[in-house]
Write a structure and sequence with these properties.
The protein is 36% helix and 14% strand. With 352 residues, the chain is an alpha/beta fold. It starts with 6 loop residues before the first helix and ends with a helix. Bound molecules: pyridoxal-5'-phosphate (PLP).
Length: 352
Amino acid sequence: MSRYWSAVVHGLTPYVPGEQPKLANLVKLNTNENPYGPSPKVLDAVRAEAADTLRLYPDPNSDRLRAGIAAYHGVTAEHVFVGNGSDEVLAHAFMALLRHERPILFPDISYSFYPVYCGLYEIAHRTIPLAASFEICVDDYLVPNGGIVFPNPNAPTGRLLALAEIERLLAGNPDSVVVIDEAYIDFGGESAVPLVAHHPQLLVIRTLSKSHALAGLRVGYAIGQPHLVEALNRVKDSFNSYPLDRFAQAGALASIEDRVYFESICAKVVATRTRLVAAMQTLGFEVLPSAANFIFARHPAHDGAALAAALRERSIIVRHFRSPERIAPFLRITVGTDAQCDALVGALRALC
Ligand SMILES: Cc1ncc(COP(=O)(O)O)c(C=O)c1O
């Protein structure tokens, strides 16, 4: 019945999210979720919203949450845009700020949602190959463009670009928007948010899905100068005025305010990452330096797809990408608890 479809829909290649299997007792290391639960204060805040007030629409502007995020980052609320997960914030940024005559630029190995947004919004793009070491080379982006977007740390490689390099990119690219997707920055990188004050073309996008352990709540946000935020609001209010429900606004605010808890779970993930990398290297894996809550690793003697399938038979799920070909030997493994990572290493020891 596809004759009812619009021409755009015929041409779409939608994003394929990591699997969310319904089976119990899996060691689930495939979608970069946090192995620890959110702050107890988040759960209290969400429970408090289960009240008669649910009959009322939520605040369309998420004012309290935006004020909390602004205080956390030392900016004003006019610099903050919130959305239903950073995927939605990204989508609005593509529509509002990256849809120009010239093609936008992003790495050939990067978050695979970017080309999907280009397809949906009919945005021309050009991919820039990562270096052989899987690093982003800023010089390659110092060319005329309609905008630039990449994650820092990059996904699925986990490699971090130094803040000084982002500053160099901004200095050489004053005329189009640079979107830095900081989904994983809290696990070891330096945020570009302080650069926003001096760079009118910089938009930094963040999520509570990873470091705040709130993938199920769907909250992401962007920090940029007010003229960029206004563009995002124009798109948002042409699409859905209430992207964050009452639970999401209250829970996200409680999480942002419970800095001690959030930093403590990040520190645990980082400590486990160090342990996991060492154990994988002992098994002969090459592991790219990771500043994220996942690692990207390959074994010189074993095929990536075969390893992922063998792990699955042992109820351990990791992510494998068949393309581009350069990353087909790799596994992307979310850093879980120490016990989950021990189970993974035990299974790999038997396989490698
Ligand atoms: C680089 C990157 N950006 C954005 C997202 C989207 O996160 P969310 O929509 O849960 O905020 C992800 C999720 O995996 C990601 O890897």
